[in-house]
Each structure stands twice: as C-alpha cells, then as structure tokens.
Amino acid sequence: MKYIKKIYPFVLPYKRYAFLNIFANIFYALFSTLSMIALIPMLKVMFGKAKPLTEVPEYKGLMHLGDFFNSYSNYYITTTSAEKGQVFTLSILIAIIISLFLLKNLFNYMGLYFIAFLRNGVLKDIRDKLYQKIIELPIAFYSEKRKGDIIARMTSDVQEVQNSFLAILELIVKEPLTIIFTIGGMVLISPKLTLFVFVFIPISGYIISLIGKKLKKQSDRVQRENGYILSTLEETLSGLKIIKAFNAEGRFSGVFQQSTKRHADFSNELMHRKNLASPVSEFLGITVIAVLLWYGGRMVLLEGSLDGTSFITFMGLAYQILTPAKAISKASYGVKKGNAAAERVVSVLETENSIRDKENAIVKETFEKGVSIKNLSFQYEDYDVLKNFNIEVPKGKTIALVGQSGSGKSTIANLVTRFYDIERGEILIDGINIKDISKKSLRNLMGMVTQDAILFNDTIKNNILIGKENASDDEIIEALKIANAWEFVSDLPLGIETNVGDSGNKLSGGQKQRLSIARAVLKNPPIMILDEATSALDTESEKLVQKALENMMKNRTSIVIAHRLSTIQNADNIIVMQRGEIVEQGKHHELLAKQGMYKNLVEMQSLE
Fold first, then answer.
1. 416 contacts 434 by C-beta, under 8 angstroms
2. Rounded CA gap, 406 and 404, in Å?
3. Does residue 291 contact residue 196 with C-beta atoms inside 8 Å?
4. What is the CA radius of gyration of the chain?
5. What pairs with residue 527 in β-bridges?
6. What is the architecture, at CATH level 2, of domain 456-524?
7. Which of 39-53, 223-237, 363-377 has the lowest mean pLDDT?
8. Which residues pair with 559 in a beta bridge?
9. Is 533:450 a contact under the CB 8 Å cutoff?
10. Whole-angstrom Cα distance, residue 251 to residue 545?
11. I need a surface site. Which of 7, 176, 249, 278 has the fewest CB within 10 A?
C-alpha cells in the first residue's frame, strides 16, 4: 500500500465521486440483504408455515429485532390472507421482493457510474503528470533508460494503478458492507447459527493471505518484462532497414521470443497464484455452508428452535457472503499488483530534475554582446569529454567547431543549450551565467538544427509551427523560401498541409533537413546552433542545405559544429578540437598556413 498511498493526491479532485460511490454502495449492501430477508414471509405463505397472529406484536428493542420481524411477518400474513386471500398476500410479497432487487441493482449501477469518473479522471491526471515529468527531465535521464520501459510505465503500469483503485474501493466499502449487512441479517434470524460463520472467517482469511504473499514481486517482474518487449519493438521499428540489410531478422526474432517467453512464464506464475484465490475462497465458503447445513439441520429437525423457512433464508444469506468474500480476495491481489505498478510510476514522478531554474531566475529576452565559454570541463561517467575549454563568440560572428568524432564538439551544443549542466567552468551570455537565466528564456534565444532532422508525424505546417506557434501561413512560406524548401513543398499536392509521415520518412534526407532549417528560421533566434547539419546528406542535398544555412546565419551569432570542412570555410573563427581540448584556432586560410591538424583534416576529406 506504500506506493498506492502516494497516488492518493490524484484522487482528491474527484473525491465527490468517491463519496457518491460509497453512498451508493451502502444502499446496495442494505438492499442486497433486505431482498434476501424478504423471502421469509413469501416462503411462509407458500408453505403455509405462518403462525396465526391477529394482534400487532410489541417492539422490545434492538436485541429482539429478529423476533419482532418474525412475529410481524406472521401478523401481516394472517390478517392480509384473512381479508384478501393468500394469492393476494403472495403477490404483495413478490412485488416487495422485486422492488428490493430493483433498488439493489439500481444502487449497484449508480456505484459503478460514479466510480467511472474517478477511475478515468485519475488515469488521465496521472498520465498528464507523467508526460509532463517525462518532457521536463533532462536528456541525461534517458541515456540510461529504455524508451519501451518508459512507454510501459505510461500505459500498462498506469492502467494497473487505475484498476487497483477500483479494487481498493471494493475492498474497503462495497464488499465489506455487503458482508456486514448480510451477517446482520443472519444474526436477526439466528445468533447461535451465525457464530459458526465467525469461527471460519479468520481461518479463511489467513489461508487466502498466504496465497497473495509473493504477488507484488511477481507482478513487478511481469511489468518490467513488458517494458523490455516494448523497448525491443521500438528499436526494431527504428532500425528495420539495418535488420533487413544485414539479414538479422532471425537474431532479433530470437531476442524478442526470449523476452516474450520470459513474460509468458512470469505471467503464468502470476495468473496461477491470482486464479487460486477464487476457488480456494469458494471451497472454504462451501465448507462453512456444509457445517451450517449440518448444525442448522439439527436445529430445525431435532431441536425445533428454528423454522424451515428462516433456515432456508439463512442459508441463502450465508451463500451470499461467498461472492463479496471472493471479490475481496481478488481485490487484495489487485491492490498488490497496483502497488507494484504504482512503484514504477512513482519512481518516475519522484525523480529529481537535476537541471532546474534558480529562484528568481533571470528572464532574458535580448542578446547584446556575445557568448563566452570559460574554463569549461565536463565528464561523462569517468571519461573526460571537455578539458579547460575557452572560447568567445561575439555577437553577429560565426564560430565553427571541428575535429574528429569524440572530440567534444556536440557536447558544447548540449551544454550551451543546458541540455546537460556544467560541472566545472561557466557559460555566459552577455556576461550572465546561463545557470542564472531561466531555461525557457535561454532556449528562446537559441535555434538548433541537428544532424538527424527530427520531424513529427504531422503536417509540414505543424512541424514548422513548433518554431513559432502563432505564425501565419505567409510567415511559414517565407521561412521555407529562406531554407530552400519552398521549391519542393509548393509542388506537393497539399502544400504545407502535407503529412510528412513517421519521423518524416515520406521525404528525402535533404528535404527533411531543409524543413528543420525552416523551423529554426521561423523562430528567428539571435543565436543559432548547427550540430553537423549537413554531415548525413549527399553532395547535391548538401549544397541546397548549405545555401539555406548561409541564408539563415546572416546577421546571426552562430556556433557551427561541422564534420564537412567545406561548409565552414567562411567562419569568423574555426576551433580545432582533439580529445576535449583546443589544439588550433583561426580563419580557414590561417589554419591552412599553419600546416597542422586542420590542414590534415582538409586533405583527408579532399581524398574522400
């Protein structure tokens, strides 16, 4: 219950539905019992067992309520039958029974009606909160997590938490009340016979609890494996071309089948233990019924202390306890499963965001002087990515970062945008440490075009509007023209309303990249970060994209991370990096004259 309790705050906005559900369940339990007790007078009429009684019986208090009900039913049957006949009396009693059953089922429906608002409202709010947390957490969090596991927590785990709430309400309200009212009815009929029920209930509860002990652990294993299955599926869909190109279908099928086998094995164990609850509780219940039949039969046949009609109704009430008892055992398992799922959901919700705004963080809306990176060092795990890195990026200038893979170029882009936090050193914008600036206003000053053109399964228009939500169609078209993208977009049947497909797969690499540039152009930020924006393109696409980049970088401060050196020859300063350190810097012709690492890189690329 520890983690389920942490979900309770999500219930508070819907507490009125919880109270309405409880209210409806109280009356359901009451009418459920009354509908059974009402059978006694009807059976008396049918079997002619009503004792003649012509005077209204005296009510002698709550302790004698059973005797009063028995006497009053005899009085009613005697007087009504004498006046209007036994058939009329039977008809009235049947009408009362039908009314009681109608009210019982009406309140049962009302309880389910109200709980639906609570369950679905909680489900919605948890998913909303979880999604908000997912997009707030730093990128570093996801480098250690499988995407499929996060998806599993958002879907099946949250669904399990939702189901467990219904189980809790059944556990603490509906079914216990049904049992309490039913036992109350049994006490009215025969207190002596009811004692037998209390002897067996603790024994039954202990046996059922033994079955459910390992349920939480088994449920957690099932959910974890479900996350692994989703991760494997997500990776398969993302890398389908590679799988097919290398004829690796068999290998990936094997990995997937191993995972599904583990999931099936864990699920079998879980379901076997869960399914054991119902037959065990029913068998224990029937055992109680058998004992009651033996002892109650003696009271009717030998002692004469209980009449047959009351005994039949008592047995009906005793059997009626079995259904809520089974429901409670199932609900207790639901709580254990829900607790395991809630633990996985809560672990994400309670994850601390290491990259947070300071109190009273500066909202910076203008860019005046430039970007300064001073004494910057950064480690990933135990590996030094950057060591004592220093550069100045004056306003309106283009700075290019070049070097071999793993030299730390992309890390600079991630730190300037504060996707990761700085460990040692500082990054300043107009002399203000970026840690003192709110993340939102910091990123509003920047536009980014990455190596992988990230597009969403939506229209061209909506993909570009991410740069500026309230932009007009004319502004979008102007941005597409600057990005050299309007030439192909205008030829599409639906123009900017064309859907680009999953990850933009309906378009070529060059077309996707130019749409990414158009998105950055529409945002119109003063600082532009280009992270190897042309490295994945063919020569023809590269020229079109390079022209688009040049259009975009006019009058802007740009940090360009480049793999292809031909794209940064006009940069105001080229920084040559190796193993996280600056080894050379200067203009293109200055670096060539030095006959150093930059010239070697240029010569290697010219031979490609």
1. yes
2. 6
3. yes
4. 37
5. 446, 557
6. 3-Layer(aba) Sandwich (3.40)
7. 39-53
8. 399, 529
9. yes
10. 38
11. 249
Residues β-bridged to residue 383: 380
- Please report the DSSP string for 508-558 in residue order: -HHHHHHHHHHHHHHH--SEEEEESTTTTS-HHHHHHHHHHHHHHHTTSEE
Distance, in Å, from the CA atom of 70 to the CA atom of 306, rounded to the nearest integer, reads 11
pTM: 0.73
- DSSP letter string, 416-456: HTTSS--SEEEEEETTEEGGGB-HHHHHHTEEEE-SS----
Integer Cα distance of 107 and 85 in angstroms: 34
pLDDT value at 422 more than 70: yes
- Residue 106 pLDDT grade (very low, low, confident, very high; cuts 50, 70, 90): very high
Token representation of residue 167: 């189980």
* In the predicted structure, residue 63 carries a pLDDT above the cut 60: no
Residue 498 to residues 476, 494, 506, 517: CA-CA distances in angstroms?
14, 5, 10, 18
- CA separation, residue 208 to residues 215, 305, 341 (Å): 12, 34, 22
Which residue spans of the chain are classified as CATH 3.40.50.300? 456-524
Condensed to tens digits (0 to 9), the pLDDT of residues 148-166 reads: 778 878 888 888 888 777 6
The candidate with the shortest Cα–Cα distance to 33, out of 323, 271, 300, is 323
Report the CATH number of the 2-349 domain. 1.20.1560.10
